[in-house]
Amino acid sequence: MAPKMFRKIFIEYALAITGGLLRFVLIFPLSTYSTGAQNHWRTIKDNALLQQNGPYDPAIAAGEKLAQTWGTFGFWWIVAGWVPAVLLPAPPSILFAALDGCITAFISSATHVQTSYAPHRVSDCQGSAAFELHRPLGANESFFEAAARLNATVTDPFSMCKSYTVEWQYGLSVSVIFSFVTVLKIVSWYTEMKEIFQEARAKNLPLGEALLTASVQACKFIPYIFMYGLLYGPFVLFFRCLPISVKSRVRFARRCGIKTGQGIRQKSAMQMEAVKKAIKSPEEKPQIIMSNETPETLAEFLGIYDMLILVCQDLHYVDIANLGLVSKSVREAVLPTDSRIYRTMHFKRYTCQRRDRKQCWVCRNQICTCRVVSKPVTSDKRSLSSISTTVALIAPLATFQTFNESVVLRSQVVKTPWILGVATANPSQTSQVFGSAAGTAPPIIRFTRATLHPSFALFAKTAMIVAMKSC
Predict the structure, then answer these.
(1) Do 144 and 134 contact (CB within 8 A), yes or no?
(2) pLDDT of 412 higher than 90
(3) Where are the beta strands (DSSP E) in 269-384?
(4) How many Cα atoms within 13 Å fall on the side-chain side of residue 468?
(5) Whole-number pLDDT of residue 358
């Protein structure tokens, strides 16, 4: 599997990128080659002395005409077909390979013809060589002398000989690079066609139908290629040519626009989600189904939002979530269905004091350190009776089994002059709850871990907090 995947990546990307780079590299040598061939052919065409019927070698006129024709055509073909040749898939991509091969063959033929009369090195034109090369018998001047005399721009025989040498050198390099481009395109087309054949064989499709489908898909892709090359490409090139000061401002505005759009999109998505939850479909069941029973006293107390916030200041968000498991009415009072999302975010953020909360906005629940909340020492009998009444009401609700070690609840440790023992299911044992105020007992309220649902333990703790606040 790995070699096959590597082979596919190499063929689809490496060959395409290499072919595109070689096509881009061909633009400069082809432009130089075609420009030199046009100048030479223009001089020959305008002067009968230099043509095939003249005294000079007829291969010069034939070679320059061939080089001018296919050099110019190859240059414009590379410029116009650079992007489509890279992006167009098979089978139509074979047309680019065929035309590339045709251009390569004709430019190679022109270079082969030029080999017979053009020097291969510039040093071959130095000295008297420019005056002696291709000088017919009985003629007073060589071909390069006559071309320099009849040319309006290059009037030096050495410069004219040098221009023919440079044209031959560029023709040789263009032929080699064009050959590589053609071979890469043929290999890429072959591999793509092989994949099409394998896919057709796997799906039991006729070969003609598979080729027709692939051709139609490739033809549909052609407009996108031209739109990219004509509409998007020029703007990108123009932007690349701008100074850094202009590009930095444009990029800054683009980043601000993208971030603003992302914020608007996220906000609209959240609003739509809230609307969907508010307007439920008939098939969706509500999260909380309230019964017709009268709400509990604790639910009525927590239904007052200010009182709920006062209670939540001493609780962790996990404790609040567990508090909602006591009953349906308490759940509706703590996290009502119409504002559940808002209250969830509110409780997660503000249920612990800021100085004691680790600043963690990534984790689901923030972590609060254990802290000691001072409580004024009072000997008011009403406070004692309030605490005893609360414990007497809580004790029969659930059975708490005594462990070897009592555990402190996770939110905080409450400091008080009275000690609360182990709550039991037997009301007769509630006299063990309170100890003496002589100062021998440790000033910490402790509960044992319950074996039943944690909501009962949290219920007991919430009632204790309410009793403490009423003290």
Answers:
(1) yes
(2) no
(3) 372-373
(4) 22
(5) 53
Q: In the numeric block, which tokens belong to residue 178?
A: 């064009």
Percent helix / strand / coil, the chain, rounded to 5: 65, 5, 30
Angle at 199 between CA 195 and CA 201, to 5 degrees: 115
Query: From CA 308, how far away is CA 310, in angstroms rounded?
Result: 5
C-alpha 341/C-alpha 335 separation (Å) is 8
d(CA 285, CA 288): 9
In three-state secondary structure terms, 372 is: strand
My answer on whether omega of the bond before 157 falls inside 30° of 0, hence cis, is no
Distance (Å, whole) CA 77 – CA 74: 5
Give the C-alpha separation, 60 to 49, whole Å.
Answer: 12
Residue 88, classed as helix, strand or coil, is coil
Question: Cα(213)–Cα(371) distance, rounded to whole angstroms?
Answer: 72
CB within 8 A of 327, min separation 6: which ones? Answer: 296, 299
Query: What are the backbone angles phi and psi of residue 369, rounded to the nearest 5°?
Result: -80, 150
Q: Which residue has the tokens 């005056």?
A: 131
Q: Over the stretch 354-376, which tens digit does the pLDDT of each residue have?
A: 555 555 544 445 555 544 444 44
By the 8 A CB rule, do 190 and 12 touch? no
Provide the whole-model pTM: 0.47
Q: pLDDT, tens digit, for every residue of 226-277?
A: 677 677 777 888 888 888 888 888 888 888 888 787 777 767 777 777 677 6
SS3 434: strand
